[in-house]
Amino acid sequence: MNILQHAIAAIERAAVRAWPALETADIEGWLWRHTGGGSQRANSVSPLAFTGADPKAAIAEVERRYRERGARPMFQVCDINVPADLDARLAARGYRLQEPCTTLAKEIAPREPPAEVETTTVAGEDWLSVYLAGISEDRRPIAPKILAGVPAPRAFFLLRQDGRPMSAALGVVAHGVVVAECVATLAAARRRGGSVRVMAALEAWGAKQGAGIAALQAVAANEAAQALYAKLDYTRVGRYHYRVLDS
Question: Which whole-number Å values give the CA distances from 100 to 25, 81, 94, 181, 194, in the listed order?
Fold first, then answer.
């Protein structure tokens, strides 16, 4: 097992911190999250820890809370859930599997960032114009509220082409990991190396903040994203999917 695989718990905890929900609750150690809108992470349970003795009762409490808000119960299920048989428990309860994803990571060291990439601590209008263009319509109204709650240390990276916004990313440092979020390039500007440069800036910034690992989570079926991160030497260290109860 290499250093990245040893660090999977820190990577998963950092990823949870990097994309905060607007409403949370502790359910026997599980982090219950609700935000509304289309973000799956911000509307699902993160079950990285469990302090209770009755998972069945905890699942029932999760369902009660979501139904109170008119939302479907949802869990984000990864390789290190507690209890370990949570996925099987949810499947037996009628939860369907949704959107398999991969957790990717690489070791990083201090270096100079690309000079042309702008770095700020807030999401400006130009940064938002790139990010919002690449997400589904149901996520756009709530995304600025989530972004406003992203904890420090954080940085927003923006690359322009001919003065116009081209590529963007968000970096958040926690637990010795810089998590890459919101990596996007406008459709008309793709295949010009924009995402490569904002990722280089993000990694350089993260290392300066003390992170030794850069990590991100990407949809497994997104071939373009998987190819990009493989090109940047990211390797798969984990995986996750969602379990959703429709009835």
Answer: 25, 15, 17, 17, 26
Are residues 80 and 154 both part of a single domain?
Answer: no
Q: Is residue 244 part of a domain?
A: no
| Backbone phi and psi for residue 23, each to the nearest 5 degrees, phi listed first | -135, 130
The answer to the question of residue 126 being in a domain is yes
Each residue of 91-122: pLDDT tens digit? 999 999 999 999 999 999 999 999 999 999 99
- Structurally, the chain folds into a number of domains equal to 2
- Note the pTM of the prediction, 2 decimals: 0.94
Tens digits of residue pLDDT in 11-64: 999 999 999 999 999 999 999 999 999 899 999 999 999 999 999 999 999 999
Q: How far apart are CA 214 and CA 210, in angstroms?
A: 11
Q: Please give the full DSSP string across 70-94, using - where no structure is assigned.
A: T---EEEEETT-SSTTHHHHHHHTT
What is the Cα–Cα distance from 147 to 35, expressed in whole angstroms?
A: 12
Identify the helix (H) or strand (E) that includes residue 219.
strand 213-219
Peptide bond into 153 cis (omega under 30): yes
CATH number for the domain including 164?
A: 3.40.630.30
| Containing structural domain, residue 154 | 106-238
Tokens 């979501």 correspond to 66
Identify whether 245 is part of a domain.
Answer: no
